[in-house]
Design goal:
Blueprint: E1 6-12, H1 19-30, E2 37-44, H2 50-54, E3 62-67, H3 73-81, E4 88-91, H4 103-113, E5 117-121, E6 128-130, H5 133-150, E7 162-165, H6 166-172, H7 183-193, E8 199-203, E9 205-207, H8 217-236
Parallel strand pairs: 1-2, 1-4, 2-3, 5-8, 6-9
Antiparallel strand pairs: 4-7, 5-7
């Protein structure tokens, strides 16, 4: 039986130091596998040479899109999804934090369990994660808050590695309004409210990229504001089911 095509979507902003190597590692890991794939790099209004670095790859598997204004990660992912051809879509980070050799494992889990989502979890018992202590603390606190408020049966909403069926993406993503900091959370909240609850967590191998910028106070504040907006839409307005 023919295996599904995988669309790998990478949102990129100020990633000129990382993007070539990130795409290169994905190409090396996937060219030996038995399913078709494409890599979609969405350059989100980046003022540097991110787009030029991504286009250094001459592979027909690599498609680079860019626009002038920065809109945020969520917007970039929706933009890439609208152009994806694969039956399975994955979102991954431009910084190369995740080893692309583990993507095949997630695709197999999607097939075996007929999952709506397979999401990477830093808290999975089999995960191998090198992650700064401060980020671990922020992540744990945010997880506890979102689990209490939204009741999501997942241990990690924010890990930047997620796989979902294309038909699920086409239903869920148009309802997602957050364009940046809490996009991952809102996507899962929308999926839950629409009945897409076959969500499985997979262990990840993650090496924190120190070249990426750290978490700042204003980033945390904006993420909390986005989270409160999601709560208002989900619990007060019942917006996502409309």
């Amino acid at each position: 039986m023919k295996r599904p095509k995988l669309s790998i979507i990478i949102p990129a902003y100020k990633e000129e130091k990382n993007i070539y190597e990130t795409v290169d590692e994905i190409l090396k890991a996937h060219d030996i596998l038995d399913y078709d794939y494409e890599i979609i790099v969405v350059v989100d209004g980046s003022p540097d040479r991110t787009a030029e670095e991504a286009r250094r790859h001459r592979s027909k598997k690599v498609h680079v899109y860019e626009y002038k204004q920065n809109h945020g990660k969520g917007y970039a992912l929706k933009y890439g999804t609208a152009r994806a051809e694969g039956e399975i879509i994955t979102f991954t980070d431009a910084g190369g934090d995740f080893d692309p050799k583990q993507f095949d494992k997630c695709v197999k889990l999607m097939e075996i369990f007929e999952a709506d989502f397979v999401i990477g979890s830093k808290r999975h018992p089999a995960s191998k994660v090198a992650y700064p202590l401060r980020r671990r603390i922020y992540s744990w606190l945010y997880h506890r808050m979102t689990k209490l408020v939204f009741g999501l049966n997942v241990t990690d909403t924010q890990a930047g590695l997620k796989f979902l069926k294309r038909r699920v993406a086409k239903d869920v993503l148009p309802r997602v309004l957050v364009k940046q900091y809490a996009f991952d959370l809102e996507m899962l909240v929308v999926a839950y409210q629409l009945g897409y609850r076959r969500i499985f967590e997979a262990p990840v191998e993650m090496q924190f990229n120190a070249r990426n910028s750290g978490i700042k106070f204003d980033t945390i504040l904006k993420a909390l504001i986005d989270t409160l907006a999601i709560f208002y839409r989900a619990k007060i307005l019942n917006y996502y089911r409309k």
